Amino acid sequence: MIFYGLQTISPQYFFILAFISTSLVSMAVGTAVGTASTIGLALISIAQTIGLSLLLAAGAIISGSYVGDRMSPVSSIAIITAHSSGANLMDMIYHMLKTAILPYLLTALGFLFLGLKNFSSTTNIANLESLSKMRMNIFRSLSGCCCLQS
């Protein structure tokens, strides 16, 4: 996942993509901690490899994870809250969604701005291309290993 992330994610859009992707995964899975410890680990590794701020990357990952968990119909918190209050789960999530859209969009714009600002001072495209070629050579050399042949 890290290899493909380095190939597809543009560094200036990393923070907003990390925020959106973790929120979508967390919404689908229903766990913020599980999302942060799976896709978040790969995203932090990508951010470190490209030379981006790890603090901003962690902020985008954790923010997205908890926003998605809040809006997930399979989240344990949402299910317990709906059950204990006697509310319909989907109605409750719909009403929470109405209050979450504006902060979500503002946070996404903030991460977009931070990514565009952070990119110009920290990332060198030539280093990314050489790193990508080096990793490709490593994968090609490993494919010749007897344990990886099909």
TrEMBL record:
One of its GO terms (molecular function) is antiporter activity. One of its GO terms (cellular component) is plasma membrane. Residues 9-115 form the Na+/H+ antiporter NhaC-like C-terminal domain. It is a multi-pass membrane protein. Its main location: membrane. Keywords: Antiport, Cell membrane, Membrane, Transmembrane, Transmembrane helix, Transport. It is found in: Cell membrane. The chain crosses the membrane at residues 12-33, 39-62, 100-116. The keyword Nucleotide-binding does not apply. Pfam families: Na_H_antiporter. The keyword Transport applies. InterPro entries: Na/H_Antiport_NhaC-like_C, NhaC_Na-H+_Antiporter. Belongs to the NhaC Na(+)/H(+) (TC 2.A.35) antiporter family. This is Na+/H+ antiporter family protein. It comes from Halanaerobium congolense.
